[in-house]
Amino acid sequence: MEATTAAPDRLVKLGLAFRDSKTLLSAVELGVFTLLAQQPLELVPLAEKSGVHARGARDFFDALVALGLLERDESGRYSNAPDANQYLNRNKLSYIGGELELANARQFGPWSMLTDALRTGKPQSGARGTEDHRAYYADSAILENVARGMTGGSLRAAQAIAARFPWQEFRTLIDIGTAQGCLPVQIASAHPHLTGGGFDLPALKPLFEAYAEQHGVTGRLRFHSGDFFNDPLPTADVLVMGRVLHNWDLATKMLLLKKAFDALPGGGVLVVYERFIDDGRRFSTAGLLASLNMLVLTAGGFDYSAADCEGWMAETGFLDLQVSSLAGDIGMITGRK
What we know:
Elements: H1 9-15, H2 17-29, H3 32-36, H4 43-50, H5 54-66, E1 70-72, E2 78-80, H6 82-87, H7 97-111, H8 114-120, H9 133-136, H10 140-164, E3 172-176, H11 182-190, E4 195-200, H12 205-214, E5 221-225, E6 238-242, H13 250-263, E7 269-274, H14 285-297, H15 306-316, E8 319-325, E9 331-336
Parallel strand pairs: 3-4, 3-6, 4-5, 6-7
Antiparallel strand pairs: 1-2, 7-9, 8-9
Helix pairs in contact: 2-7, 4-5, 7-10, 10-11
């Protein structure tokens, strides 16, 4: 038997990482970071204001300190760590906690059944797994949770696309599968000459319009209602599909790319952004786990490499394909008609 001097600490830490994750997700759900953004609080008032029972309060908040999410001064007052204060305060436009709220409410439970998904190849997400999004979105609480999650997951990428794409060369854009409209709102805010909007199921319209109004761009952005399986896509100089294609099987991916190609004018551009898997499929932990997330949640979705997407776009007819990195683990591919 081969001897080893390696300690098992890495394996144990990885195996129990769900405890770290759920502690953060619960803190977001309970509004701890939003509460502490107002003022530092001692243990008892923090527990009372956040609705945490006395039995678990001290361990919970001190665990957040140990995780680097909260700080505690010598007088016992808790406050947010700088990054938590910036990104997990619901009252800030930089809030990305919507993605974590979505993960907590819609993904954490199904992921406990990953083994079943691996054995059967079937989603473990109930209504989401049927791909009947009209029925799924009929529940207003689910609708708002999903829309906020899409905003939280898209914000940094949207800001990067607004800064790095040559928008001065174009006049109009439409975001396909826009949810609240995070991407067109960020781009329109940064480029006053642009007009356009977002395309999604009719149920998202009030959330889109409220978000656009909050950011002062309602005069230039309009919501386009439709179902991208049954309706033609609206036309614009630039169409964007952000974290959309990974929800579907290959045949559907190709269908949506073809519909985007057909909707674009000559010289128009499609932008696709995702958590791409590295071409060698060795290092992109985030992309590979995102693909497992599609296994757990959807009937046929999967994530893919930039090379995969380039091949599909080239087969559809797109030219001048270019790949670039955006924020964090998200990348972007552009292709011209």
